Structure formats: structure tokens, C-alpha cells
Amino acid sequence: MNTKGTHIDNKKPFLVVLGAGESGIGAAVLGQKQGFDVFVSDAGEIKENYKKQLADRAIAYEEKKHSLDILLSANIVVKSPGIPRKSAIVQQLITQNIPVIGEIEFAARYTDARTICITGSNGKSTTTMLTYDILKKSGLNIGLAGNIGRSFALQVATEPFDAYVLEISSFMLEDMDTFRADIAVLLNITPDHLDRYDYKMDNYVDAKFSITRNQRKDDFFIYCKDDPETLKGLARTPINAITYPFSQQEVVEPGAYLNKDKEIIITIPNQEKFIMSINDLALQGKHNVYNNMASGIVAKIWELRNESIRESMGEFVNIPHRLEHVTRISGIEFINDSKATNVNSVWYALESLPEKIVLIMGGVDKGNDYHMLKELVKMKVRGIVCLGKDTKNIHNAFEDDTEIIVNTQTMSEAVQIAYHIAQKGDTVLLSPACASFDLFKNYEDRGDQFKAAVREL
């Protein structure tokens, strides 16, 4: 424990940061800059690079425990989104009337920058990156933060931008209070993290819709009109902002839709109509049409030129670990989709790829319902390679839908077996539908090990 400087200046307000990950370090740096006496507490081990950042700024911290006496003397607490509000430590703080907020909320209090906030069960990282790419290439002074890249708070503290594109998870939304999104995007809502929401879908939907909280009548809310859970949430949630829906099933104006010629049409009042064939998109697949529609609406709200938007949509390179092409060996494509940690993400991956597929899946099952994948597995999947300690649910779900289901315990073994099952013209797809924590540090580590194992074939 490095307690040097722990709440020694009674003239300064005392900020406690729970969790010393990317968001926590950013909150600590911003808090110090704003005149707080700062203390960082992490129940786990703090990474060396984060320790160095704290030490370089003489910010006190502890690891592998929470010192309750210090925490309860805080004026305000910024917590990691990974710590549930119902956890014992957070409930003790709340009982003592100590405000507990998230890093996004905290950072927003110290910037006048405009915010474009993107959430959804699937596609939010891709849409966030695509939106950022379009706006940055148009010459805007724009930052990228939230659930992706460097923390929002750190950027506000050290290199402020005029606007930010923020990828926002439902966990982050739980810790919002006064935060307001200038532009809020809700891509879709499918069952995910239900263990965090008492296994009630309505609770999860309400968490997602809190992205519209505090919006004013001159703000914007962009949503998918084809998504059933979004429509249900919309029916019970008052929206103050200007709404722009997008759809592939019907004509929506203003908003975005797909016409009979398979062109994306975006109409925004008092602006030239945007038209682009889906064949010209860099990102292919039905789900990516939705992602491009959402990003396109944001770009049109910013009044960017149609030519600039088309150019970005046509040249965009997707983020790592999301349908990432690795290589081709003996006529077999290898695709890294390690970021697919829920069933719906795997559905999108299978839907966007040609048959035949050897699917590597498995990990920490969050109560997955695999029913939605059964038809695609029957149509497209040659075999399933299970990776992880608990593969029973995968076997039960798909034993009648594909001829081969094999268990493996390491990524190297999984890749080798998938390679032997696959035939020329097939795709080996890592798309786990599960969290990674049984065998890997995180989904990035899982994806990196997949790519390394493929290159060793």
C-alpha cells in the first residue's frame, strides 16, 4: 500500500477512486488536476504501468484490499463500471450518503465538449470507431473514449477535445447522474449481462435507455426501429430529444433506411439526401448496414459532406478482435471474432460469413440461450470446437445441428483441430459467445492467442 498523501489536506475535497484500471487512473489524474486529494483503492492487483502513472503524480493508492475507514471519509467516490452498485462496499458508501458515480459522469463535469454516446448489446465498438473515423477525417477536433481506447477523464485532464465519441456500456450507464449526451445512439438490445440485472430483461432495457437521461429538446436520439426490445423500451420511456430511427424493413424519413436497390438512404431536414449502395461499404453483413446507418445519421447531424461520409464508409478498417481477418492457409480463412462475448454477436458473425464454417466457441457461459443460433448452425457450420472448462450447454444446444462437436482446453489445440476439420474454401471462426475469464486474461488475450496459434500452423 502506498499511502503517502492519503487525505492529509483537510482543506481539499477527498476523492476515492475504486478500481485502478484505465477509467480509474484517468479519474484519479483528473481529480488531482481539479484540486482533489485523491486515493485509489483496488481489491485486486494493480498493473505496473498504472502504478507508475500514480507514482509519477504522487497519487496515493492501495491494492489487494479496500480500507473501509479511508473510503468512508471520501467526499465523492468514482467507481469502476465493473463493480456492481449492489456490491457490499458500494452499498456501505451509499448508506453513508457518499456520492458514488462513474468515470464518464465525473469527466463530463469538467468539460464543455459535445458528446456522441453509443450503446447497444452488439456493434457498439464498430459503430463507435466508424463514427470517430468519419468525424476525424472530416477535420473535427475529436476524441475517442469510453469503453474503448484511453479514458475519457484522462483526455479531459491532459488533452481536451471539442467533442468525444464515447462507447458506453450498460454498466457505465448505471453510474450516470447529471451526464447528458448531445447525441445518443442505441443500436440494439439483446439478452446480455442479465446476471447483473436480476435476470430481468426489462431492467437491462431500462439501463440501456438511461443513455437518453437528461437529454434536451435540441439533442438527438438515434435508434433501430427494427429492434423489438428497443421499441418496447421506447414505449415506456419519455424521450425529450429529436429522434432519428433507422431501419432495413421500412422507409423512415427523417432517419435512415434501405431502399429496394439495396442503397442506404439518410434524410435529415434541410440537408441533401445521402445515398450509398451497401455493396460499396467496407464493412459487409446485415448488422454492419445498421452500424453504417447509425454512424451516417451522426455524420449528417454534424452536417458533414456526403462525399466525405461515403469515402470513410468505403475505406474503414474494423477494430481488432471483431470479425478480424487473420490469414488464409491452404484455402481456409481464419477470422478472429474474440470480442463476440454473447450469443447475438455470434449470430451476427455467422450471418455475415459464407458457409462452410468451423466455429470455435466457449468460455464462461453467462446463462446463454443458444436457440437463436440453431438455424444458422444447421445451414453454415461444418463443426464446432468447444474451448473452455464448461462446454455442456454447447453440446446440449447443437448436438442435433452439426456432425462434429469437439472439446479442447487450449487455444493451440482448438486451432489445430479446427484446421483439420476445415476444408478448402471454409472459414475457421473464433466467435466464443462467452466471457474469456476461464482460460484468458480478457477477450483481447484470447484473440491474440488465436492469431498466434493460427500463424504457427
Kindly describe this structure.
34% of the residues lie in helices and 21% in strands. Helix 2 links the parallel strand 2 and strand 3. The protein has three domains: 85 residues, NAD(P)-binding Rossmann-like Domain (Rossmann fold); 210 residues, UDP-N-acetylmuramoyl-L-alanine:D-glutamate ligase; 132 residues, Protein-Tyrosine Phosphatase, Chain A (Alpha-Beta Complex), CATH 3.90.190. It is α/β, with parallel strands linked by helices.
Can you tag this structure with a few keywords?
457 residues; alpha/beta; Rossmann fold; UDP-N-acetylmuramoyl-L-alanine:D-glutamate ligase; Protein-Tyrosine Phosphatase, Chain A; 3 domains; nine-stranded mixed β-sheet; six-stranded mixed β-sheet; 17 helices; 20 strands; disordered N terminus
